[in-house]
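Q: What structure does this chain adopt?
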Amino acid sequence: MPRSRDGILNQVLTVAQMRAAEDALIVEGASVDELMQRAGQGAGEWVRRIATGGPVTVLCGPGNNGGDGWVIAEYLREHGNPVSVIAAREPATEAARRAQALYCGETLPMDADISGTVFVDCLFGSGLTRPLPTDLAALLMRLVMHHRHAIAIDVPSGLDSDTGQPLNAGLPGYGMTIALGAWKHAHFAMPAATAMGTLRLVDIGIASIPRSARALAKPRVAAPAADSHKYRRGMLGIVAGEMPGASLLAAQAALRAGAGYVKLAAQSPPQGVPPELVTTDSDQTLLDDARVVALLIGPGLGRSDGASRQLAAALHAARPCVIDADALILLRPEMLGTAPCVLTPHEGEMAELERTFGLAGDGLRRDHALALAEKSGAVIVLKGPDSLIAGPSGELILAPRASSWLSVAGTGDVLAGTIASRLATHGQALRAAEEGLWLHAEAARRCGAAFTAGELALGIQAALRDCIE
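A:
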């Protein structure tokens, strides 16, 4: 796609936002039929590539998602694929009826005994809010089981597009989901994201929607300027605590994420400190160093009174800061100033922060993060299998599902160090959070299976190298 539409194609829309975007295209002169042809033919091309000439079964529902299915089926038939359509219900919209009339291939009854290379789910799209009827849920499962590949169009049937929650128990999984027009929240939210398989997007020409969420994208990182030196590239200070091994992991990642200088303050430096990591036994020495442009505190800090004083002193230094792990439990609202700040909680730490900041903790996962970002003035990286970033001005960035092998001790320390290193290079909290989260996931992808946190930290360099323009 042209780079000029990259931002638009990165949008993540609610059902209401998607309808408004389509309505805007219609006001500008596009017909519903034209939009259905764009969506169906674009999705049909993806299906054709997976089918590689093999037979395809398309399940069409009564709405416009079913209409997309009729278009997909005709597109495949015209390109030489054997196609069968099962009409689970008769078309209920004018556009779907017109799409059905244009299909010239085979139509089968719901009880047909059929198998094939690819099954395409066009039963219901992103607007479904109630459970599938029993007969349709059983049909869906049977067709998925009897085909080699299963592809969902827009959103797998039986999932709530806005929340990512299943509307039926025991829904099948898919090898691919083809989003139409824009990403939906279910593409990134658990538990729906586990059913999606590979994600693909068909552009139908919608415009930018104000204040929409967006998908986490590969960052573009410039190489250091020709006249750079270690301080100009950014000096990061890391405050260690009772368990300095965690801060060492963070430092290993920070050394490879772009900062020009990383300095660790630890009263008892851990074993295995690499020669390129500078250490000091005094927090105050670190905080007094005017060359330190960003700080990381939390990994291995502990929760003692002394640790609380360390946190207060670090935040009093009024430098851009990443607050992680134990520091999130010790944090109090009055400690935060106006310097850019990133908080990196997991679910348990998020609940503690909500209590600390007097938040009700209501709504969806993204609502929790947005509320804390607004209340604290910090950028929130809410970690988990469906990690997301919330900014204090309402920004919401959703990360694609990363490797499940990240579920090992120490990977959170690596993420914190990566974000802090990026923060040291430019001082922008939201940008650093996005860069760090993407690098962390990419390093995990490259590491493969059963890696350690130390191996993940070493992998940050190769992930960053891929982003340099």
